[in-house]
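We modelled each protein-ligand pair independently. The example shown here corresponds to the zinc ion entry; the chain sequence is given first, followed by the ligand as SMILES.
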Amino acid sequence: MVNARLRLPREPSTKRIKRYNHTRLYAGDGRYWLRCASALCAFHPQAMEGVLMTDYFGSCLCGTVSFEIKGDFDSFYLCHCQHCQKDTGSAHAANLFSQSAKLIWLSGADAVTSFTLPGTRHTKSFCKLCGSALPNTQIAGLLVVPAGCLDTELSMAPTAHIFLSSKAAWDGEAGEVPEFEGLPD
Ligand SMILES: [Zn+2]
Ligand SMILES: [Zn+2]
């Protein structure tokens, strides 16, 4: 359940985030509440209400673009389709998906541009200056986040490899996660 409304622990461990003037109150399971020093916090109105949340920070390679994601990811797919090979220049894309998390651009929003391959749902957002992959919301109701652009450590393991039917000849073994020839069930 995302953003479960729970009581604060009696003696929470805390960590001040100087950059954002917020304090994290850890629940003990890796999740935390955010407490804002300011009563006028544009980023975290929920923090004043004691809403348990997870958030992530990320940025592009040149540092022009930075962002925050509030909420949790539903799935994490490694896509080996030919579009993702071209797009990433690699064996596969590594994208996190969420239908509930919120994306907030913290800097460089005007340096973010997007491309959608005509006739497909294949879309990507990237930094105009350095080309780094960035989160996109081109598909209504779905936030897609390239895992590599996150600066916050991600504990979630990949859900599955997909489109292995078109994997590159030089692509190594998929490993121990579930494998699908096309889209998962
Ligand atoms: Zn950049
Ligand atoms: Zn793909």
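Helices lie at 82-88.
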